Amino acid sequence: MQRYAGFTLAELIVVIAVLALAAAVAIPGYLGWLPDIRLSSMIRNLKSDLALARQRAIRENGQVAVVFDIPNNRYTIFVDNGAGDGNANDWERHADEAEIKTITLPEDVTMYAAAFAGGSPRIRFDGRGLPNGLGGHVYLRNAKRNFRGLVMTMVGRIRTKISLDGGESWDDAE
User: Fold this and answer.
1) Residue closest to 102 by CA, chosen among 143, 68, 134, 57
2) Number of domains observed in the structure of the chain
């Protein structure tokens, strides 16, 4: 008698059915977590981008600006040195000024507040890595109305914040 190795069709159908059932149970739970994962990820990315702007200002021994565009849900980091026909330190990126990066937030993450020196939605680091003004904050929320934020001190220390009451009060998230 010859013996064959392998699986029968019935065994394969049972395995596929079990995998489909597991996926049907797991996917809705994962999709529920996705907005929170995107929000947390965006806060981490924003924190590293601010650190990048600070380091680039030190490296260039010049001014690096981070300008938040709240209506369009994005921010731009650039060297604000007036290269070409621009004016240095005017908060505007001119054609010859080096753009470090422009980031648009995911659809389900909204930047609803950014206020730094004088309440403006922008921050600039000098050649020593110090921010202009007294620091400030950036607040984000997701489609599930979870709130996260970054707060920067006047010496450039960045802390992650979380709000459990809709953005009224903020606690350290770290």
Assistant:
1) 68
2) 1
